[in-house]
Amino acid sequence: MEATVDELSAAYDDFVAAAVAVLEARAQAQQPGSGGGEKTAATDAALEAFKQRWELFRVACDHAEELVESIRQRIGSECLVDEATGSSASAPAGSAAAPGIKPISAVRLEQMSKAVRWLVIELQHGAGGASVPGAGGAAAPNPSAGAGHGGVDARFADDGAQ
Protein backbone atom coordinates (compact mmCIF):
# COMPACT_ATOMS: atom_id res chain seq x y z
CA MET A 1 0.00 0.00 0.00
CA GLU A 2 2.88 2.32 0.77
CA ALA A 3 4.27 1.85 -2.74
CA THR A 4 0.89 2.82 -4.22
CA VAL A 5 0.76 5.97 -2.08
CA ASP A 6 4.33 6.84 -3.12
CA GLU A 7 3.47 6.25 -6.80
CA LEU A 8 0.39 8.46 -6.53
CA SER A 9 2.31 11.20 -4.72
CA ALA A 10 5.14 11.18 -7.28
CA ALA A 11 2.66 11.26 -10.18
CA TYR A 12 0.85 14.19 -8.57
CA ASP A 13 4.11 16.09 -8.03
CA ASP A 14 5.10 15.51 -11.68
CA PHE A 15 1.65 16.65 -12.83
CA VAL A 16 1.85 19.87 -10.81
CA ALA A 17 5.40 20.52 -12.07
CA ALA A 18 4.19 20.07 -15.66
CA ALA A 19 1.33 22.54 -15.02
CA VAL A 20 3.85 25.07 -13.70
CA ALA A 21 6.01 24.54 -16.80
CA VAL A 22 3.00 25.29 -19.04
CA LEU A 23 2.27 28.50 -17.15
CA GLU A 24 5.91 29.57 -17.32
CA ALA A 25 6.11 28.83 -21.05
CA ARG A 26 2.97 30.88 -21.67
CA ALA A 27 4.30 33.76 -19.56
CA GLN A 28 7.57 33.66 -21.52
CA ALA A 29 5.67 33.75 -24.82
CA GLN A 30 3.66 36.78 -23.71
CA GLN A 31 6.66 38.93 -22.80
CA PRO A 32 7.30 42.00 -24.97
CA GLY A 33 9.46 41.25 -27.97
CA SER A 34 8.52 37.56 -28.08
CA GLY A 35 5.80 37.87 -30.68
CA GLY A 36 2.82 39.07 -28.66
CA GLY A 37 1.60 35.93 -26.95
CA GLU A 38 1.87 33.54 -29.86
CA LYS A 39 2.15 29.84 -29.25
CA THR A 40 5.79 28.79 -29.23
CA ALA A 41 7.61 25.50 -29.50
CA ALA A 42 8.35 25.71 -25.77
CA THR A 43 4.63 26.08 -25.01
CA ASP A 44 3.80 23.14 -27.26
CA ALA A 45 6.43 20.98 -25.55
CA ALA A 46 5.19 22.02 -22.11
CA LEU A 47 1.60 21.23 -23.06
CA GLU A 48 2.61 17.81 -24.40
CA ALA A 49 4.52 17.04 -21.19
CA PHE A 50 1.50 18.22 -19.19
CA LYS A 51 -0.77 15.88 -21.15
CA GLN A 52 1.58 12.93 -20.54
CA ARG A 53 1.83 13.70 -16.81
CA TRP A 54 -1.95 13.97 -16.63
CA GLU A 55 -2.32 10.48 -18.11
CA LEU A 56 0.31 9.07 -15.74
CA PHE A 57 -1.47 10.71 -12.80
CA ARG A 58 -4.79 9.16 -13.90
CA VAL A 59 -3.16 5.73 -14.12
CA ALA A 60 -1.72 6.15 -10.61
CA CYS A 61 -5.18 7.18 -9.36
CA ASP A 62 -6.70 4.09 -10.98
CA HIS A 63 -4.12 1.87 -9.27
CA ALA A 64 -4.86 3.49 -5.92
CA GLU A 65 -8.60 3.07 -6.48
CA GLU A 66 -8.13 -0.62 -7.32
CA LEU A 67 -6.11 -1.10 -4.13
CA VAL A 68 -8.76 0.62 -2.00
CA GLU A 69 -11.53 -1.46 -3.62
CA SER A 70 -9.65 -4.71 -3.06
CA ILE A 71 -9.01 -3.82 0.59
CA ARG A 72 -12.66 -2.83 1.02
CA GLN A 73 -13.79 -6.18 -0.39
CA ARG A 74 -11.35 -8.09 1.80
CA ILE A 75 -12.52 -6.27 4.92
CA GLY A 76 -16.14 -6.89 3.95
CA SER A 77 -15.44 -10.60 3.46
CA GLU A 78 -13.64 -10.82 6.80
CA CYS A 79 -16.53 -9.07 8.55
CA LEU A 80 -19.01 -11.45 6.90
CA VAL A 81 -17.02 -14.48 8.07
CA ASP A 82 -16.71 -13.00 11.57
CA GLU A 83 -20.46 -12.39 11.77
CA ALA A 84 -21.34 -15.80 10.36
CA THR A 85 -18.96 -17.68 12.63
CA GLY A 86 -19.73 -15.62 15.72
CA SER A 87 -16.10 -14.59 16.17
CA SER A 88 -16.54 -10.84 15.79
CA ALA A 89 -13.88 -8.93 17.72
CA SER A 90 -16.36 -6.14 18.47
CA ALA A 91 -18.91 -8.51 20.03
CA PRO A 92 -18.73 -9.17 23.77
CA ALA A 93 -17.18 -12.50 24.73
CA GLY A 94 -19.59 -15.41 24.60
CA SER A 95 -22.29 -13.63 22.58
CA ALA A 96 -23.73 -15.18 19.43
CA ALA A 97 -23.72 -13.42 16.05
CA ALA A 98 -27.49 -12.93 16.25
CA PRO A 99 -30.11 -14.29 18.63
CA GLY A 100 -31.73 -17.44 17.30
CA ILE A 101 -29.14 -17.95 14.53
CA LYS A 102 -26.48 -20.55 15.15
CA PRO A 103 -22.96 -19.64 13.98
CA ILE A 104 -21.57 -21.72 11.12
CA SER A 105 -17.99 -22.68 10.41
CA ALA A 106 -15.90 -20.47 8.15
CA VAL A 107 -15.23 -23.48 5.88
CA ARG A 108 -18.96 -24.12 5.54
CA LEU A 109 -19.59 -20.43 4.80
CA GLU A 110 -16.93 -20.49 2.07
CA GLN A 111 -18.49 -23.64 0.56
CA MET A 112 -21.91 -22.04 0.49
CA SER A 113 -20.48 -18.85 -0.99
CA LYS A 114 -18.79 -20.81 -3.79
CA ALA A 115 -21.98 -22.73 -4.50
CA VAL A 116 -23.95 -19.50 -4.75
CA ARG A 117 -21.32 -17.98 -7.07
CA TRP A 118 -21.45 -21.04 -9.33
CA LEU A 119 -25.24 -20.88 -9.44
CA VAL A 120 -25.13 -17.20 -10.35
CA ILE A 121 -22.62 -17.93 -13.12
CA GLU A 122 -24.81 -20.75 -14.43
CA LEU A 123 -27.86 -18.49 -14.40
CA GLN A 124 -25.97 -15.70 -16.18
CA HIS A 125 -24.88 -18.12 -18.90
CA GLY A 126 -28.41 -19.43 -19.40
CA ALA A 127 -27.77 -22.50 -17.23
CA GLY A 128 -28.01 -24.75 -20.30
CA GLY A 129 -31.19 -26.35 -18.99
CA ALA A 130 -29.95 -26.53 -15.39
CA SER A 131 -33.26 -25.11 -14.18
CA VAL A 132 -36.58 -25.46 -15.86
CA PRO A 133 -39.39 -23.03 -15.07
CA GLY A 134 -42.12 -24.86 -13.18
CA ALA A 135 -45.57 -23.89 -12.02
CA GLY A 136 -45.86 -20.31 -10.89
CA GLY A 137 -42.52 -19.38 -12.45
CA ALA A 138 -40.49 -21.25 -9.81
CA ALA A 139 -37.35 -23.03 -10.92
CA ALA A 140 -37.10 -26.79 -10.56
CA PRO A 141 -34.12 -27.90 -8.48
CA ASN A 142 -31.14 -29.27 -10.35
CA PRO A 143 -30.34 -32.79 -9.08
CA SER A 144 -26.61 -32.27 -9.72
CA ALA A 145 -26.43 -28.79 -8.17
CA GLY A 146 -23.89 -29.89 -5.56
CA ALA A 147 -21.58 -31.62 -8.01
CA GLY A 148 -18.55 -29.56 -8.96
CA HIS A 149 -19.34 -26.88 -6.38
CA GLY A 150 -17.18 -28.08 -3.50
CA GLY A 151 -19.60 -30.96 -2.85
CA VAL A 152 -22.16 -28.60 -1.36
CA ASP A 153 -25.86 -29.05 -2.00
CA ALA A 154 -27.08 -25.71 -3.39
CA ARG A 155 -30.15 -25.95 -1.16
CA PHE A 156 -27.96 -26.28 1.97
CA ALA A 157 -30.24 -28.91 3.50
CA ASP A 158 -27.59 -29.98 6.00
CA ASP A 159 -27.10 -26.55 7.64
CA GLY A 160 -28.86 -27.76 10.79
CA ALA A 161 -25.96 -30.19 11.39
CA GLN A 162 -23.54 -27.34 12.04
The description of the largest β-sheet is: none
SSE arrangement, N to C: HHH
Structural class: mainly alpha
User: Tally of extended strands?
Assistant: 0
Residue share in helix: 55-70%
Shape: elongated
Q: How many distinct helices?
A: 3
Q: Which spans of ≥5 residues are poorly predicted at pLDDT below 50?
A: 93-97, 129-149, 157-162
Q: End-to-end distance, in Å?
A: 38 Å
Round the Cα radius of gyration to an integer and report it. 29 Å
Strand content: under 5%
Nearest-integer average pLDDT: 74
What does this structure look like?
The chain is mainly alpha-helical. It is built from 3 helices and no strands. The protein starts with a helix and ends in a 38-residue tail after the last helix. Residues 93-97, 129-149 and 157-162 have low confidence and may be disordered.
Write a concise synopsis of the structure shown.
The chain has 162 residues and is mainly α.
Helix and strand topology:
Layout: H1 2-29, H2 41-85, H3 106-124
Helix pairs in contact: 1-2
List keywords for this structure.
single chain, 162 residues, 3 helices, elongated, disordered C terminus
